[in-house]
């Protein structure tokens, strides 16, 4: 009555043409499968060695995950066999993967963080790890069940985050969103019950305060462009900022990933790191002038335009993430001094390039075109975002009332 546990690649692709990795449980030549939640291209699978090939960007981490899954399944299989070896493959699968009723909040949180690391979502991993740490410090223990996370727990957590960590309401709401995410996962996996859910209705409401979005105006941008008393580091920071602005607020992570090979026929072709959307934008004369500043350092068509990632280990997504994070911090430091030299009293950071584009655009560009330029998936997102920079109707309405009094 031989039984075995093995990793395999199922041959039914998803809508993206990728194939699911699955644990195959076999007993008496009958098999059943448990998907592990990851899909890969068929050419990235080594069927002989039952491994993800190095051609896959996350091969090392996926193979570590597979090894862990196989180890856990075999361990559970041995436990089952010591009690009763007369079991079917379906029953073994059910027993190995049955819902862990006593899984704690922090155990589920750890699974979530490991998944983010597997998918190289380092920005989310960094923020969500911080949220877990806040909750753990408040709880003063790694033991926390979902039925303990009620309205009273969340209200006390909110007070703690304000008092002990001076978090603003937006940051606190982000912590609550994270807790809600894990609660929804727990309910789906039958770890928690719907009646325990502490959010919505007459319970805890997650409501973000309105954020103030202030961008530079056209005159302020010209003042930055025409500054002459700048250091080499300040010039570089200004170039990156203007590069972002002239491409409708392209994110710094995407700007630094730009290669000379991404420029064809006076257009930039790039894939957004945030949602993998592909976009093509025309190079303006101002962007061409910025590129001319760096052309002397071009050695190959696949070189990065900007220097920050030239020494990065491109096979290590964490190293790339850290270098971008460090660069962004450096740019913001020099942008602060640039703002002072340009007599600009507004906050100037890399992200303000996006706000500045919205401010200058105002209501002169159709929302559908702005949606394309901003790379928003939903038009509502564009309309809500741009509403921060459209003041003319309100200004005219206010003025019309004041004129009647005057």
UniProtKB/TrEMBL annotation:
It holds the Pfam family Arm-DNA-bind_5. InterPro entries: Arm-DNA-bind_5, DNA_brk_join_enz, Integrase-like_cat_sf, Integrase_catalytic, Integrase_recombinase_N, SAM-like_dom, Tyrosine_recombinase_XerCD. The keyword DNA-binding applies. Keywords: DNA recombination, DNA-binding. Residues 211-403 form the Tyr recombinase domain. It comes from the Bacteria. Belongs to the 'phage' integrase family. It comes from Snuella sedimenti. One of its GO terms (molecular function) is DNA binding. GO terms for biological process: DNA integration; DNA recombination. This is Site-specific integrase.
């Amino acid at each position: 009555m031989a039984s075995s546990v093995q990793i395999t690649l199922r041959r039914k692709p998803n809508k993206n043409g990728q194939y699911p990795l699955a644990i195959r449980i076999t007993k008496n030549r009958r098999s059943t499968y448990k998907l592990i939640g990851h899909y890969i291209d068929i050419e990235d699978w080594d069927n002989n060695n039952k491994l993800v090939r190095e051609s896959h960007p996350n091969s090392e981490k996926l193979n570590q995950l597979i090894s862990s899954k196989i180890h856990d399944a075999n361990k559970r299989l041995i436990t089952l066999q010591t009690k009763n070896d007369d079991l079917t493959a379906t029953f073994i699968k059910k027993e190995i993967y049955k819902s862990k009723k006593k899984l704690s909040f922090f155990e589920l949180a750890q699974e979530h963080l490991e998944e983010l690391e597997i998918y190289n979502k380092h920005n989310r991993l960094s923020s969500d790890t911080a949220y877990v740490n806040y909750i753990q410090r408040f709880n003063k223990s790694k033991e926390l069940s979902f039925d303990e996370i009620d309205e009273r727990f969340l209200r006390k957590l909110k007070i703690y985050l304000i008092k002990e960590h001076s978090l603003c309401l937006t940051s606190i709401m982000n912590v609550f969103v994270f807790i809600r995410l894990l609660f929804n996962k727990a309910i789906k996996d039958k770890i928690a019950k719907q009646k325990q859910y502490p959010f919505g209705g007459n319970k805890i409401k997650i409501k973000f305060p309105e954020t103030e979005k202030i961008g530079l105006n056209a005159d302020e941008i010209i003042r930055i462009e025409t500054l002459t008393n700048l250091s080499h580091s300040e010039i570089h920071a200004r170039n990156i900022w203007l590069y972002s602005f002239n491409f409708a607020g392209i994110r710094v992570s995407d700007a630094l990933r730009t290669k000379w090979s991404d420029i064809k026929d006076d257009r930039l072709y790039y894939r957004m790191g945030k949602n993998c959307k592909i976009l093509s934008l025309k190079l303006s004369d101002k962007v061409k002038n910025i590129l001319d500043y760096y052309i002397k350092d071009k050695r190959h068509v696949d070189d990065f335009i900007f220097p920050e990632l030239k020494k990065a280990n491109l096979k290590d997504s964490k190293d790339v993430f850290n270098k971008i994070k460090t660069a962004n911090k450096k740019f913001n430091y020099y942008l602060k001094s640039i703002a002072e030299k340009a007599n600009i009293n507004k906050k100037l950071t890399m992200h303000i390039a996006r706000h500045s584009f919205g401010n200058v655009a105002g209501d002169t560009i159709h929302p559908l075109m702005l949606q394309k330029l901003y790379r928003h998936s939903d038009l509502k997102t564009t309309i809500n975002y741009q509403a921060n920079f459209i003041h003319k109707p309100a200004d005219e309405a206010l003025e019309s009332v004041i004129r009647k009094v005057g």
